[in-house]
Design goal:
single chain, 607 residues, alpha/beta, Jelly Rolls, 14-stranded mixed β-sheet, 6-stranded antiparallel β-sheet, 7 helices, 27% strand, Malectin_dom, non-specific serine/threonine protein kinase, Leu-rich_rpt, protein serine/threonine kinase activity, phosphoprotein
Amino acid sequence: MASPAAPLALLILLVSLAIAAAQSGQPSSPPRNSTNISDAAALHTVFEKWGLEDGTMPQGYHPCGKLVWSNSSEMEASINCSCSSNECRITHLNVTGYRNITFIPAELFSLTELVSLDLSNNNLIGQIPPQVSNLSKLETWHFNNNRLNESFPNASALLSLQSLWMFDNDIEGMVPGFIANFANLTDLRMYGMKLQGPIPENFSKLINIENLMIGDLDTEGYPFNFTGDWVNLSTLSLRNCGFTGKFPNQILKNLNKLTYVDLRSNNLSGSIDLQQYNSNLKYLYVGENNFNGSLPDQMPQSLVALDVTYNPLLRGRLPSSSADRKMRINYIGTSIGAGSSVGSENLRLLNCVDMKGCNTTGLTNPVSFAVNCGGKQYTPPSDPSTMFNDDSANLGAADFHVDTNNNWVVSHVGTDPFSNSSGIVTTGNGTNMPELYRTARTSTGSLWYYVVGLPSGKYTVQLFFAEIVIESGSGRRLFNIDIQDRNIMTDFDISKEAGGSNRPINRNYTADVTTSVLKIHLYWNGRGTCCIPHNGTYGPLVSAIRVFPSAETQASPPPAAHTSRHDEKRRGVVAGIAALSIAATVISSSAVYLWWKWVSLVKHRKA
């Protein structure tokens, strides 16, 4: 029989061992599914510096048990974790939409198990810290829509990267050549910055690329010589990259999955051999180049929209197959003849727009002009002498509309490769917005308005705006404005200028007309958010346009006054006081009346 003292001795031994372990400073094993202590400490420090958490890290801090700090239409702060039997490691970090976040704490780069890091749409400034190379397991890295600047650090260690979004920053220097080593990269978006070309030839090594979007490079005069065996490429956007020389038709014909090509605003030349393109191509934008020759009579059956605007050396006739299939073609600014597809009056206005023998004889010269962009004809009750013309025509992904009754033309090119972005947007009838601001024409590329037949002179161009798509604080719509080929606004932000979304604002500019044509150009410059509240929410937006001689002083429909909560409360107090005053008057009057009736009744009885 065992001695009764044996269990007691065993208990004393176990307690002694536990005390010794504690005194030796050795940490005990983490509880099941707790967050790795290093990850937890790093995340808490980062969130504390960003104002997402306060104070000292609490005992047993377990962020993998929380996951979400904020999740609204404007801001998101969340993580995701991968857990084993002992602990959880932080693998995903999303902090977006915080305009007060201006720097990246060094502790963030201690989260070495991260596979996804999204810091887009904040207000980050300065250089990207070189410690980003510590995150060698990253597959997704998005830091678009910030104010990061200086040169791009060497991040060649990120060999697992699959998606890299860095657009709409102020990053300088050459296009990083080490990106070509990211063999797993499928989605690269790099535009709206201050980078210089050329695009390195070794980008041909990106054999898994599906979406390649590079633009706005501050360099000109180098060839298009970096394409590779991109068998998975679906979207190719190389807008405003400074290319010159012949366009590689032969190369692109082998990209069988290619559906979207945007090569606008380069200096490419040669012919456009559409017959060599694959059968899946839907959108082709090659406007503002120097292509020559003529378009083939037969177009690819898959083609939905073709933009060849402002290629003055393009000649010939419109392809006959385009009219049969209702394919959209915008050819303003070329020498292409419309043939029988365009009426004589339309053709006369188009010739004026293209400066091809503008004949204004017989045209009703407008003294002024007004258009309700994206909306129906409208006459403001406050100004019955001004009629805003109907501009509700659907222009698809590349087209124009000619109004021969009022001598003006609207032209549009652009569509988002990842959504069916609409060229006309509206706001609900329940809003208190003035009628003129409830519709707008928008574009993910360019909008042109041409007024034809104006007498020579100085004119006031009045542009009407209201951001009716992006809610205040959630995203940024930025675009440029040119009038008569002169830039007058860069990075124009409607919400910022108006003090928020759904607030009307007008801007007046002066322009000289010497050739009977006034040209207004609004266009996307690669800046601003792309996908808030949905894909394709970027580029210019305009509610109405009005043009009149500068010598005249004309009233315009005023923007609706913004109603603040303070004003509403003040009006409520005033209304309440007024109501009480009225009630007091009624009560007093009633009392006097009843007293008079009582006195009369008493006198009557005595009589």
